[in-house]
Amino acid sequence: MTINILISDPLSEDGIYPLRQEKELDLNIVSNTGLSPAELKGIIKDFDVLLVRSQTKVTREIIEAADNLKLIGRAGVGVDNIDLEAATEKGIIVVNAPDGNTNSAAEHTTAMIMALARHIPHAHMSLQEGRWDRKKFVGVELKNKTLGVVGFGRIGQEVAHRAKGNRMNVIAYDPFLTAEKAEKAGVAYGSVEDVAKVADFITVHTPLLDSTRHMINEDIFKIMKDDVRIINCARGGIIDEDALYAAIESGKVAGAALDVMEEEPFVGHKLLDLPQVIATPHLGASTIEAQESVAVDVSNDILSYFKFGSVLNPVNMPSVPKDMVAKVEPFFDLGYKIGNLVSHLTDEAINEINIYYSGDLANFDVRPLTNNTVKGILTRNLGNHVNNVNARYLAERNDIKVNEHKSTRAKAFLNSITVELVTDHTTHKIKGTLLAGLGARIVQVNDYVVDIVPDGHILMIRHTDKPGAIGLVGTLLADQNINIATMQVGRTSEGGDAIMVLSVDYAVENVDFLKQQKNIFDVKAINL
Ligand SMILES: NC(=O)C1=CN([C@@H]2O[C@H](COP(=O)(O)OP(=O)(O)OC[C@H]3O[C@@H](n4cnc5c(N)ncnc54)[C@H](O)[C@@H]3O)[C@@H](O)[C@H]2O)C=CC1
Ligand SMILES: O=C(O)C(=O)COP(=O)(O)O
Predict the structure, then answer these.
(1) Tell me, what's the pLDDT at 495?
(2) Which domains does the chain carry?
(3) 102-118 and 120-128 helices cross at what angle (nearest 10)?
(4) 231, 236, 415, 467: least CB-packed within 10 angstroms?
(5) ipTM exceeding cut-off 0.85 for this assembly
């Protein structure tokens, strides 16, 4: 059988040599870059594999037309240009190349920090235009300045390492950053607000996820130091571009270096008109070395998939051994949902995940179930990148211990899963069960006994047990036209800490109106 491979973005020819020299498989490699979405949609049904970088938008529409597609290879890190949900639904595995361009992206970020500090692009242009202007381009030193790194993954850590070489102090924020890890890396750590308050330069290195979209916004710009400089070599959309524009215009932000923007190509973008802005056309990974490396990695995964049915860098595609399906599959969704819910109870870095299986369930090999539960926990911060195959690996990489505990002794329920998250300062847990004929239920949140259907849009509100608290929440939600479907209230003691868990009819985008209330100390909107 011929395997038809379409390469729709420019890839390193040296990098795809594993495909070119393949003898065992019959590969037909077609390079066709610069296709319009309509053109791609028109031809995609003829291909088994699609190989892309960031330009090709692999939308649901394309995937739905891709009747023979088995694998999408992303020669790079970010998969925000691929509709992962649509691919998974259609059974198409997505692989990426997470390590191959780390160094290049970190070097580019470092170059941007320096170019920004010393006005190199503008000074060069001014010389080209025939001027010898030395006064206009007085810069600032990096030495003894503080670099804020938001997103301390592969690239963030490499950038921090280089900044220390330039004698900068580094403060980082990442939900997975613990005191121990920060100390090992020689950086300070804190919340995104802590970073904003003290940094002279702020560079973002998170993926683009719902939780990171516009995380650098008007409110965050307000608390930054005057004359701060901003760098984005990760993804357009992490920084709110209108807020950045306003912050530059107002004089708060002294400069910005941008490799990416929300819409690309970004020729003609209004930020480019500001003299404080320098920019490159998404060049972070554009080096000979990185391009070769990412193309080799995806090529090898393509071969591995067609020869052995396994891949090294899957981004989606859970897999469950067949004999397990009937026994533990009903619990998969429950494990994921408990994991996802409990992850919203803390913003601190997680050190340990304890998963307690009790009742019948403890008789089975629950490892795939554990993977799905860990996936639910990590998804909050790592997004769709986490799947059953890589969840444990990602936990390990983030120094999170995962422990399974089993007890066949059934207590109040025939079977139950309890997930406990341990951080430096707190422990949070959620317990769930499957009730015969009724389906999944959350029966305990920390010390509160509850009865919640884990589905749809959930608001978890932690508050002080005071008369009127429940009525107030009802009224505030009604004012926003948000209908409450069910509501559960639990408390530890009269007048003590309490919790309200509400299911509402629509996703609640902004919960500030609830957070501002005196007796409410935490609000989480969760979509399951
Ligand atoms: N400009 C370019 O050409 C390139 C851009 N990139 C972008 O850089 C991003 C980061 O790449 P890597 O470091 O390899 O990924 P990574 O997965 O190693 O690191 C991402 C980090 O962001 C953290 N994170 C997630 N949500 C967060 C939040 N709300 N606040 C703070 N941190 C959060 C994660 O915990 C993780 O540690 C990619 O997703 C990609 O979009 C990557 C390569 C080249
Ligand atoms: O790897 C990534 O996430 C990148 O942004 C690199 O994008 P590119 O492959 O150069 O279009």
Answers:
(1) 85
(2) 2-100+289-308 (3.40.50.720), 102-279 (3.40.50.720), 322-527 (3.30.1330.90)
(3) 60
(4) 467
(5) yes
